[in-house]
């Protein structure tokens, strides 16, 4: 069925029935390059509309450009591209165009030139860009340069600033790793839902269940073991799903993930008031940790990682999340332990806190599942 | 099968087809249409313009040819709201672009291009230089008046309009002056003057662009004075002269949206309009109607604003602020953009979005400056009245 539909769809495309109306946008080309030992590779997307103003691709003046009108002009286009983009690292890196494809961008279709450039020097890379400025003085070349060590640099090349030089090394592996650790810590620090889930899980950790009531634990070591189990289970679970999602093995829509995360906070808070989940809290931490991992993964995806540095970033980000989490535990548990026998702990901290967390989580759940915006954060 | 069902199926299939094109692909045959260009006429590509382009390519330093080609490109850029055509006009003037003391016709065109890029100070310098050379240049004074009006220098704009009249362009100068008076507390009088001028035969002889300009000015003024029936009629008359004028379409769409006449907006503006400012209004209308296309339009706008930010442009803050407020539901970001926009542009729409965003973000005090400006200029606008009260005056 799917194949049939796609077949009809491409037929319609062929007939020009759904050539999308091109949005009006200033002229930009997208140049992405990757530098590896002795070699530059990448692609250069140039709008067909822009190529038309250089080459009059629309030979028959029917206000349409078809693949034939592009394909037969490849050699001219290649010569133009090579004369308008020069790359060098000490010595020149001669541009080769391996293939020509088409891609849809927001303002219409672009010709994709797949590039290769042997680049023996290991000095700073210079990019000299001169495409299209003579037909559109407001044209820009948007450059993304990926270096071997996972650093991604970007630059806007314009008529006023057509040349950019990039230092060879960029940031070191260690700096890149430290950057991802920081991102992880930052995310847990501003990810109120993950924090509150942990808090809701840990508030009763200084208590033990006696039937339907809570009893303060006798010693710190009992509390510590229970905290250790919970934190380890949560960490294991979210590390697994974070990896699966980042590697593209499992994918879940963000709205669903976010809704279930809110639900997990709500259920945990309710369980503090009226126990109904398994009494062994680490199992709860593990089960819900799985879904929180997908939440972390969507943040990591937004950071637009270079594929070559996936492992580095994945580990770095995860380490950051764990550090942030440990900081919360280090503050929360000693306080809770000291206060556990106080008259206020159970009614105010545990019950009051759980009610507050539960209400907040219910708000998130409504917001995320119904796609509303009700709350300030 | 009902036609609406067939259309729905077609849209679904197209989304599959275009969706599957989201990664680079190799077209299957030479006849596959990859791009539908804006119609030749919209690209300013009549045979006369094509001839000019060939002549210009052969002799790029010929002033007369370059000026005529750039004029055609700018006229087309305005008509179609297509930023690429502005860039092409700039390229046409390359031989003179860097010359401070360029010939007067180039100064005027360069000012227009710079104003479009919101380089207001540089644009003003070009116009002042042109006027210093030719003090009775009506077009230069008119362009200066419009620039001054956009940036909130209303006294300067009134003075420039007088110079347009002094240079002999009486009808245009009168419309120009009434347009400024309308913003400075003399709305009712300006309305009578505009009505009289439009009734005169002199204006009928003017090009369509001038008549559209005058009629839309009148419609906007009627709307600000709360004369809704008349505003509606003037907007329609203006669109009868030029049904594709994007400024008038946007203004009329706003008028309709304020009256929750969303269906009429969907008739006025196609869901796949290439023009950002119109797509914004269409998406707002779709949202009022609860139509699925609202999300599509909103996503497309988000992508376009993102693309503009990537290239380092910041000329769309007014539109983006409205987008953040009305569609993305992010009043804090909308306020930030509206205030940045207010720092450079001060037209009634700029005041309105700043006030709306400040109220929605729960920070009315952020718009104090706007309120002060509105009070000092004497601007009458029923749409602003309701917004002004909750904002503390300084």
UniProtKB/TrEMBL annotation, chain A:
Would you tell me the protein name for this molecule?
Answer: HupE/UreJ protein
Keywords (alphabetical) are: Membrane, Signal, Transmembrane, Transmembrane helix
Pfam (any one): HupE_UreJ_2
Species per Swiss-Prot/TrEMBL record: Tahibacter aquaticus
Check the UniProt entry and state the signal peptide residues, or none. Answer: 1-23
Is Transmembrane helix one of the keywords UniProt gives this record? yes
Q: List all membrane-crossing ranges.
A: 185-207, 219-240, 284-303, 309-336, 348-366
Automatic annotation (TrEMBL), chain B:
Top-level taxon in the UniProt lineage: Bacteria
What range does the record give for the signal peptide? 1-22
Q: Which UniProt keywords apply?
A: Signal
Residues that span the membrane, as ranges: none
Its name, as the record gives it, is Tetratricopeptide repeat protein
Q: Which organism is it from?
A: Tahibacter aquaticus
Upper taxonomic classification of the species? Answer: Bacteria, Pseudomonadati, Pseudomonadota, Gammaproteobacteria, Lysobacterales
